[in-house]
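User: I'll paste a sequence; please echo it back and then give the predicted structure.

Assistant: Echoing your sequence first, then the prediction.
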Amino acid sequence: MPTAYQSAYVTGLGHYLPGDPVGNDDMDAYVAPLNRASRRIKQRILAENGIRTRHYAIGPDGRTRESHAHLAAEAIRACLRSGSSELDTVSLLAVGSSGGDALMPGFANMIQGELGAPPMQTLSSQGVCVAGVSALEFAAQAVELGSHARALAVGVDMPSRMFKHSRFGPAGYDIDFDAHFLRWMLSDGAGACLVSATPAPIGASGLALRLKWTHQKSFSGDYPVCMQLGLTHDRSQSFLDFATSAEAEAAGALSLRQDIRLLPHVFDVGIHEYVKLAHEGWITPGRVDHFLCHYSSAKFAPVIDDLLRKAALHIPPERWYSNLATRGNTGAASIFVMLAEWFATRSPQAGDTVLCFIPESGRMTAAFMCFEVVPATEAAPSVVPLPPVPSAASAPTAQLRPETLVAPHDPDSGDDALRPVLTALASVWQDYRSRVWRAPVMQQLVHGRFDQAAYQRWTANWVPQVREGSKWMREGAASLDQRFLPLAALIGQHAGEEQDDFMILYEDYRAAGGELPLDQLRRNPGGDALNAYLHGVAATPNPLGLLGAIYIIEGTGQRIVPALLPLLREQVDLPASAFRFLAYHGANDEHHLARWLQAVQIVLAIEPEAAGRIVQTARHTAQLYALQFESI
């Protein structure tokens, strides 16, 4: 039995990419456009993703040249060579992948068989990009606990077999964009790490990597499925629900899909998690010497960089490393392939800190790994003090700290006076967003169980709340003194624009079959509590905190509503005219938030200490608005 925790070291790195590199002009021989729409999508996606070459384990004839298990086995052999180790010294094989050659048994067992490996413990981690991180974390923990002296962690994916022409049937390629998209994004590959209890050199470098920590968090309870295989397009049926596999394939349940409308959310949650880790002392951006960031498309790199800049947690671009352009997006293998190539080509130095960031869009997960480059002669300590475990509830508090995150749904710039209040509001927003997505009505939507009756109930609860919106805003404007006349004018303008919005929502309610007269509709308990609170704040002298309430309400329109509308349209059999309120706010609340930013600038220039009231009111409004969702 282990008596002490040990360090875990990466003492071998290897990767394997099948066949010759396939350039963009040569892709058609493997993954061909099958109609004009498909060709246009190909051109658009390749122009954005920055991938110039990738590798496939299938041939131009569509036949499989190398199995999924073979890719993993070759990466393992390369890894063992780099660590001057033999397979019979390894007692654990942990594998992360989106799936193997067979549905059962576990993929790690199939790879063990492919290798002809001796008896050992195995673990199969099934998922998408983060599955490989899970495998490495399991291997490292096993070594740290003393259960194993050496373990292999493998990330491997082989999606090409799903993209060939024959998979879409003789009738042609008449299928939705979500299934088109990934054909031009994903490719095949494998990577492996040898994890050891004592340091040993990787290749001839004289260096090893000490794993300092890993961190993963899934937000699957907050978001609908973004990337999936095995469900119909509307996610209402599994491929196993059909009478035959042929029927499942005809219904599209065996097409790999990506809902690109949800993709921005993966960076939203990932960067916010990065900020929490920095706030708690796990990440110090100025001390990160190498940043290995897995992103599926080159167009996302500046998005991530911009969010880090806003958070004042920027890592200079010369410290970034990516091989996406030449190796493609290999899913769970990507970070392993990246780590192996980075180590071989960038000549890291002892003492360097390496941070890996792996966002996964399957159902929104963020993962991080941090390594230190160490001499292979480093004495391995017998006992390692464990770092503090980050609290799931921890977040920057109302002590407005400049290093916390500026919400990505805010305008692009904020001056020194604005940054503290914006960063504190970002933390309030993230907790609110997560709670809203877990509300029962939202879970109905996420799981495809919404219908016209549910939409009718929702709008019936919502109409009287929206009807009160302009009233408490006007009341608040009337409570401002002469110093805040410009603010009163802005609020009055906003209230004037929105005073009749409830009628749009009422017409949506009627379109959903609602029959009650307007004056007979009643707020639910959460709506009553929110309404009473906002009127109470509005009646106080100079109720500047109401700007916090507007931030939450308008932010809901800009950040949450756009994600709801496609789900509603899929599940509620009503014409587009029945969703006019949601469509209007999804399109216009960004402009409203720009006006809100101007209002905050006016307030802070006159009364800087109002920042705390704005944040406090935002927090209370978020709690009550979430209660309104939960009470539907």
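The radius of gyration is 27 Å. The longest helix spans residues 452-478.
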